[in-house]
Design a protein that fits this description.
Elements (H helix, E strand, L loop, with lengths): L8 H30 L25
Length: 63
């Protein structure tokens, strides 16, 4: 096997890389579009909280 035919040659390898990059960019744009249309997901972000979630200790309002 020639080294030029490894993975189908450099032209095919560059084409595959270009397709992968294009799909990744389209996925990122689709994600941003959906988040813009629907808004962020509900609930607190697990990445932004620094403390553990504890049950609420606020008093219940009386009628």
């Amino acid at each position: 096997m020639s080294s030029n035919d490894l993975f189908g040659g450099p032209k095919k390898l560059l084409t595959v890389v270009a397709v992968i990059v294009a799909v990744a960019i389209l996925a990122a744009l689709a994600t941003l579009l959906v988040r813009h249309l629907l808004g962020p997901p509900e609930g607190p972000s697990p990445y932004e909280t620094t403390s553990t979630s504890l049950p609420s200790t606020a008093p219940t309002p009386t009628p």
